[in-house]
Amino acid sequence: MSQLQTTPARKVARLSGMPYSPTNPNYGQQRVPLLYCGKRLLPENYLPVGDANLSRLYDHNKYPSIPYTEEIAAVIAELEEQLSVEYERDEIDRHRSPTSPTPGAGTPTRNSTPSRRNASSLLKRKRRVHVAASYDQIVDALEARGVNIDDYLVENVARLSQEHADHVKAFCKNRMMVAFVWSNQFKDALVRDALGIDKDHNAFSIAFDICTDQRSSLQAKILGRGHIHGVAYNSSANGLVNYTLKHVQKQPTYENASGRTMARLPNSNDFPQHYRSIEMVIDVFADVADAVDWDACYKGNKSGSGKPGNKEKGPNHLGRAAILRTITVIQAECLNALQNGWTNRKGVYSRPQNRLTQKKDKFTRHKAVLDTVRATDTTAAPIIPNPVEVKLREDLAAAGLPCPNGPIQQVLCLYPLPRYLTTGKVRRRNVGQDATSYAENDALLLFGDATMSELEDNGEDDEEDEEVEDEEE
């Protein structure tokens, strides 16, 4: 027998402009393990800004043992409608009065009994009773429509298949383009985006740990690539005059006129012009480049068109953010090449080696270097006003209805994944297939001012592994 859902539909609350669901919709009921998350409350090519909003990125899944996709949700909605109609029909039949004999006659007639009145009220009722479907009913309904639920399931065990693990790693690479500092909420959202599983799934912690390991490893590799270009600048004629000779053998930080602690970074305007190119971005971020659709970083790329941008028109807001991020990484590594005394006053770079292993000594980057890199999560972030909220306000205004007057929530634009990662049986979620329609609007890119106090260290090691160190020259 299908379970009767007697509670009314939940209302969606709002906080800071982002819709979210109440934290405990099943209060007083036996807790159901949350294996799969519900609907994503933002389009999949955006992330909310801030940990609180990241925690509310996904709606509750009323069938948490069933993966959520729009296709599956449509089948479930149709099934629930069918079950509700059948339930009401059964209720009407059950409340109908049985025939009873009329006094003094042998022919039975129907009386207007309370049961008949209940049946009549059921017929007139406008609000339909909601009947929840069982797992087997949902699976059967999906199969009847040619949908194989196995294409979306992740085995509920404390391990991941190689295919699923590789998919999580691809998402990790992609997210390195927008964040060096990953909070727990950020990694939770990454796992949900990649696999669609929720925190009660036995594989969730496995995927979470992959995110932690990948972040540290990929950051070390990215900074290692940036180090090569930083050293090249420091040793160049331009770099010697404008940076190296001015700051060699000095402390990595100084106080400016207002008393604020600043890192001793080179002026990016003195860098060679080719440092400001998508090609340089791809070189510095080479270890994550296969998880980004670089065509989406040029003007002319339209959402949903499937056509690459026009390189001759130059980078769009995603491309400009990536270039600024790369420039800042190189600036930080210019400082890194000086702060350990690896560059002398003649611009000669020499990094100490271990006499026994003949490998370069390990080191820990100075806080000023790491803070500069991490600041790009704010200062070089492709942030725009939430397009969903912008469209809603435009529609309300066009209809002559009152609009909210508060500020529009800001969202972070994600770099689209390559198309080979957006299809297939692992996750058919169409994640960021194309750049957004906002990619043409220069005014929407917000490069804000971030202070070092606004950046938090998650306590993870940032030391390079030996393989990365050997790449630095």
Summarize the structure.
The chain has 473 residues and is mainly alpha-helical. It has helices at residues 51-55, 70-95, 114-124, 135-144, 162-175, 184-195, 204-235, 237-247, 278-284, 317-339, 367-379, 387-398, 466-471; strands at 4-5, 13-15, 18-20, 46-48, 100-101, 108-109, 130-131, 253-255, 261-263, 383-385, 410-413.
Report on this structure.
It contains 13 helices and 11 strands. The strands form 5 sheets. It has a 3-stranded antiparallel sheet. Strands 1-7 form a two-stranded antiparallel ribbon. The model is unreliable at 1-23 and 427-473 (pLDDT under 50). Among the domains are: 70-97 and 111-151, no CATH class; 218-471, no CATH class. A hairpin with a 2-residue loop joins β2 (13-15) and β3 (18-20). With 473 residues, the protein is mainly α. The termini are far apart. The relative contact order is 0.13.
